[in-house]
Amino acid sequence: MPPEGAHRPRRGATTIEDVARAAGVSRQTVSNALNAPHRVRPETLERVTAMIRELGYQPDQSARSLRSGARRTIGYLAPADDPHDPNPLMAGFLEALVDAAGEQGWRVLLFRRARGAADPTAAIDELVAARQVDGLVLADVLAEDARVEHVARLGVPFVTFGRTGPAQPQHWVDIANDAATAAVVRHLAALGHRRIGYLGGSEDLPWMAARRAGFLAESRRLGLAAVTAPGPEAAGVRELLRGPEPPTAVAAGSDLLALDVYEAVRAEGLAVGPRGIAVTGFHDTPLCRHLHPALTSVRLPLGAIAAALVERLLDQVRGAGPPPAGVELAAELVVRGSTAGPAEPRALTAVPAEGARRLR
């Protein structure tokens, strides 16, 4: 804090030198606090940040961009979606990404391929050519994703939500999908279930394939009878429930698929819950809390995912080079009434307590 009686600049006219004098640091330290906070000691960063707020200092973004060539803007290539039926997970992810970028003094520019266009690379080329962003975030990444190949060839800093192929740059952040569904199986087994059904989405999607693999592997390890729905959505679950040895629980690869399980269970005259058919979902979207009974589901750490993506991208922008390995984060199982009765929801970690595993 500046000494009592010290002159305080008029708000709106504060300079970086004013902040440096008031905080008792150099001009370069204030610049580092704004542009490279990892270089500043935590106690100094806290003091400088407090003085920036108190004095109302607003950096001249246009001048900074001219000096550095940086726009302090991250481009997010939004996956194609139906505006009348949006993906609830991607909405939450975008909120987390904007927050994580904002904490670093950056903003997010949302863009999408032209309506009807099959190839998204034209939209990427247009944005890069206009020099509107310093790097890109890609989501819904497939194993050999053409977008990843294209951006890598352009030499643009980028990161992906979802792991890239082994021959591609390992710029990804993802969750341990297999460990998460293994935790679901352990939870259901602990409740006494020995025959468990599974309803998954398209196995062309690597995250869905990983969820199914984790479910089956953990079921085998525990000696459980695991059966997968033979058909899509509710019809496949109804076929399972009509079989000679129906499951007493059904795990779904997403919350939306869990809705199909609810529909199938009730269509067969059964109840959802610990006294009927236990059901779990994946993603922990807001609808989980509004179902009856409320849905047990795997919660993605969207804040941690977004923070890791922004950190890894800004490292590249600042010249640290591409990361040598992807990072895998833990998810958690949030238990609700669809498996464990009306008790208060509780979270169970889906991978070991150390949280993240770095993979090559």
Automatic annotation (TrEMBL):
GO terms for molecular function: DNA-binding transcription factor activity; transcription cis-regulatory region binding. Keywords: DNA-binding, Transcription, Transcription regulation. Signal peptide: none annotated. Residues 14-68 form the HTH lacI-type domain. This is Alanine racemase. It comes from Kitasatospora aureofaciens (Streptomyces aureofaciens). SUPFAM superfamilies: lambda repressor-like DNA-binding domains (SSF47413), Periplasmic binding protein-like I (SSF53822). It holds the Pfam family Peripla_BP_3. PANTHER family: HTH-TYPE TRANSCRIPTIONAL REGULATOR GALS, LACI-RELATED TRANSCRIPTIONAL REPRESSOR. The keyword Transcription applies. InterPro entries: HTH_LacI (IPR000843), LacI/GalR-like_sensor (IPR046335), Lambda_DNA-bd_dom_sf (IPR010982), Peripla_BP_I (IPR028082). The keyword Transcription applies.
